[in-house]
Write a structure and sequence with these properties.
This protein is of the alpha/beta class and 346 residues long. It has one domain: TIM Barrel (Alpha-Beta Barrel). The protein has 12 helices and 10 strands.
């Protein structure tokens, strides 16, 4: 009778021709926790994570509405946070300044102030946590009144070579303040070579360059611009210097140029929508690759978790692991501290 059919019964089992069984069963390795662990191809560790931090003073410090759980910290709070991150095994922090509007102008002059917010922040963090890597951006957008990453010409176009001169000076200021890694995020042509040459002349041979080599003109940066105060100031967009999201081959050209100019690490930004770019770069060049899980990615996952639509821990850890699987050696993520804590508790 059809109703009596039981595929697990011995009678049904003997009725199946032996040669019909699959010779290879991939599920065998998935059947037990120990075999899943032994055969795992990709691993995530706290030491592969970088925590972005926002630095502010006075009334500018405080919670970031569009990035729940993230805050703008003053220098004392920054140092305390860095101590906690180091204790969790986080390798490095990336610091971003929140500059008062009164200190901004069309040239981003405050970026060259050796007593400015970021130079002071670098000194404080390196004194408190000497083993924690300190990464700082080389770009003018937090300091310009127009919100662009460079100096505008009369037509409102970001002037490449004039901007390079400002970036070179900014690089020296931040390297002398003690930054371990300079991260040019401006996407000007030739900026890595310009920065590397001035570092060499200043005898900063071991100051590393983490280039935002494939930085796309993405809509995922909105919450970050809220955090640093450039969202309302930005005039126009950044498509004349950041990459077109439609392009992939162009990313390889950009990365190749930055490596030739002296970049030690190359970055893809944003992260999850650009996993294919990470993999292409890793396969093509075999150099250290960073992925940036940007503010919009953070905000989406956080909002979904807060609404009960996603399990925050599971989706965060999955997303970070996927960056690693795609070829990223390190990940900048606003979830880094929480992920490091989860890894420690596992």
């Amino acid at each position: 009778m059809a109703g009596d059919y039981n595929p697990a019964s011995p009678a049904c089992e003997t009725a199946v021709v032996h040669s019909a069984y699959p010779a290879t069963r991939p599920r065998r390795l998935r059947a037990a926790a120990f075999s899943r662990e032994l055969s795992r191809e990709t691993r995530l560790a706290a030491g592969q994570l970088i925590q972005p931090l926002f630095v502010a003073e006075g009334d500018l410090r405080g919670p970031i509405t569009s990035m729940p759980g993230q805050v703008r910290r003053n220098l004392d709070e920054l140092v305390a946070e860095c101590r906690e991150l180091a204790a969790l095994g986080i390798s490095a922090v990336a610091m971003f300044p929140v500059i008062p509007p009164a200190l901004k102008n069309e040239f981003g002059s405050e970026s060259l102030n050796p007593d400015g917010l970021i130079p002071r922040a670098i000194a404080r963090v390196k004194e408190a946590c000497p083993g924690l890597g300190v990464i700082v951006d080389i770009a003018l957008d937090p300091y310009t009144s127009h919100g662009h990453d460079g100096i505008l010409d009369e037509a409102g176009y970001v002037a490449n070579d004039i901007t390079l001169e400002a970036l070179r000076k900014q690089a020296v200021v931040l390297a002398r303040a003690g930054a371990d890694v300079l991260a040019p995020s401006d996407m000007m042509d030739g900026r890595v070579g310009a920065i590397r040459s001035v570092l060499e002349r200043d005898m900063r041979h071991n100051t590393m360059i983490l280039s935002y080599a494939a930085k796309y003109a993405s809509a995922f940066y909105g919450p970050f611009r809220d955090a640093v105060g450039t969202a309302t100031a930005l005039k126009g967009d950044k498509r004349t210097y950041q990459m077109d999201p439609a392009n992939s081959d162009e990313a390889l050209r950009e990365v190749g140029l930055d490596i030739a100019e002296g970049a030690d690490i190359v970055m893809v930004k944003p992260g999850m929508p650009y996993l294919d770019i990470i993999r292409r770069i890793k396969d093509e060049f075999g150099v250290p690759v960073a992925a940036y899980q940007v503010s919009g990615e953070y905000a989406m996952l956080k909002a979904a978790a807060q609404n009960g639509w996603l399990d925050e821990k599971k989706v965060v850890m999955e997303s970070l692991l996927c960056f690693r699987r795609a070829g990223a050696d390190m990940v900048l993520s606003y979830f880094s501290k929480q992920a490091a804590q989860w890894l420690k508790d596992a």
